[in-house]
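Slide 14.
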Amino acid sequence: MNGTKKVIATTEAPAAIGPYSQGIAATGTAIFVSGQIPLDPATGSIVGGTIEAQARQSLLNVKAVLAAAGAELKNVVKTTVFLADMNDFAEMNAVYTEFFSENCPARSAVQVGRLPKDVKVEIEAIAFI
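Slide 15: predicted structure.
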């Protein structure tokens, strides 16, 4: 399977203010990764009590789903981050940057009323291969 990912950037719209791109053009086979919460895949238990630990595990789970589909984080074109508390944004963003540091996917981040198992974060992704 072959696909391409091209970062879209224009001065005609506000510049990205974090680890995300204004837009992404993608071709190939789409992979839609369901929202991943910070569950340990071996035990089914919630990992970590901090937003950093939970964001890291959620992103590791996204990475594992992508790998099962034959893709990598570099194939991700869009993520959505759901936060239980927007005050956790900076800490989540620091962890997110560990996974996406260049040619970042487009991203939305929103605060929601409640997440499954009362976790602090859930992350979904769309990738192309």
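Speaker note: The chain has a mean pLDDT of 91.
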